[in-house]
Amino acid sequence: MTFQNLILSGFAGGSVIACITVMAIALAVIIAGAVVFALWSKKEISEDKEEPKEEPQALPLAEVAAAEPEEQDPVILRVSHLKKYFPIKRNFFGKPVKFLHAVDDVSFEVERGTAIGVVGESGCGKTTLGRTILRLYDVDGGDVWFEGAELSKLKKKELRKYRTDIQLIFQDPYSSLPPRMTVGSIIAEAVKVHHIVPKEQVHDYVLGVMKQCGLQPQYYDRYPHEFSGGQRQRICIARALAVKPKLVICDEPVSALDVSIQAQIINLLKDLQERMGLTYVFISHDLSVVKYITDQIVVMYLGNVMEHGKTEDIFRSPLHPYTQALFSAVPVPDPDAKMNRIILEGDIPSPANPPRGCKFHTRCSKCMNVCRMIQPEYLEAEENHFVACHLYNQEIISDLGKYDAMYEEELRIQAEKEAEENARHHGKRRKHSDADGAQSTDGAPAADGAQKEEKEEA
Question: Is residue 164 helix, strand or coil?
Fold first, then answer.
């Protein structure tokens, strides 16, 4: 008996329950068939999409640089007038009305196979700069170009294919590693997600990456808490290099390590750069480390670039007063050498309320009146040596008298406004005092009001 006959017989026999049961079974069969067909169609579509994509072969890390095209733009990273602001105050409707200027108008270029150092005091925006380049933070202004692609304008889906080309080594090796994953799983996770090598080659590939970074094969199945700080940082480096990046942003990778371990990690990074042709953006406050590993330096203060140039030029002849103060704090390994330490007075102003004019003028020993009014231009004081300071602007230096007069006029106008405000406030207080005296019926309250007024005037 066919399925159709079974339904017709159920209706003919008059059994309502039997009919409902048969219809329910028929509906379940139809739904199950539709689900199976949908899954099969989805599998076919995914296989069709993946069919033209060839799995890359497992290349040793040392051969990655050799696999690159021959003709390339020498500049791999170009940052132009980059800005990143964080809202710190909103109005009733939720619209931001006050911002913290973490990165404000930063520009530089990095060539392939070189390293640029970003130095400055804590809170100057070094880490925010690195994360904004990575697009971990959205760009509020300016452009970020990587190998001809404008990363600052790409959507998240389009940005995904560049995630393997740019990697980040975090500052803290203790909190940047997941404690419930083994070392092998940590390094292999991104390799599997981005299909760096075929699945059957992942294990051997990860062991090769670990060997390149000085990690023993027996560490594969161990957990992060079983390692020291230096070994954990090697795991972080291996995780970043496992996806074969071209640009690595190192966010103070040795600041949490001992001096002897710092030397090992720095030598490892230098060796990997030479073998793989890596490009580094090295964020640090240790100028000795920056001098050893970088080719050029960017000096930041309150989100702005104060000075930018080749490493040897800046160490030989720092131009900006802030750079001179920073470099004077570098210890010299000579007990007979005299250090001319420049002590900066005061604290760093708040980036949420930066001072007018040059942001460094509140702590600068060479501050002029023009520094308090006008923000300095970013000028090329020497060949490939840029500085943002009025001392190297000949047009301003030749006419300092004009700016001194302008500043004195501003002070005079400000003093007049303050005097008018004080007089207005004093008149309101006197009016209130007279009103209180008129309302009193006897002499005692009036006398008290007069004494109160005399105390306020005093």
Answer: coil
Look at residues 126, 113, 452, 59 and name the one whose alpha carbon lies nearest to residue 272: 113
pLDDT of residue 286: 85
Evaluate whether 129 touches 106 at the Cβ level (below 8 Å): yes
The tokens describing 430, both together, are 């006197």
Biggest CA-to-CA distance, the chain: 119
DSSP 265-293: HHHHHHHHHHHHT-EEEEE-S-HHHHHHH
For residues 284 and 201, what is the distance between their CA atoms, to the nearest angstrom? Answer: 36
Whole-number pLDDT of residue 64: 46
pLDDT of residue 434: 65
Cβ(300)–Cβ(106) below 8 Å: yes
Alpha carbons 164 and 239: distance in angstroms, whole number: 11
Could you tell me which of 327, 368, 371, 321 has the C-alpha nearest to residue 345? 321
Measured CA to CA, the distance from residue 458 to residue 442 in angstroms comes to 25
Q: Block means of pLDDT (10 residues each) for the chain, length 458 residues?
A: 51 59 76 70 46 43 48 87 93 90 93 94 91 93 92 89 92 90 94 93 94 93 92 93 94 85 90 93 90 94 94 93 88 72 80 89 90 92 92 91 90 88 78 65 50 52
DSSP assignment of 100-134, as one string?
Answer: EEEEEEEEEEEETT-EEEEE-STTSSHHHHHHHHT
Distances (CA, A) of 354 to 113, 186, 268: 36, 42, 39
Predicted pLDDT of residue 32 = 75
Indicate the pTM of the whole model.
0.75
**Distant-in-sequence, close-in-space partners of 64: CB < 8 Å, separation ≥ 6:** 244, 276, 277
**C-alpha span between 227 and 404 (Å, rounded):** 61
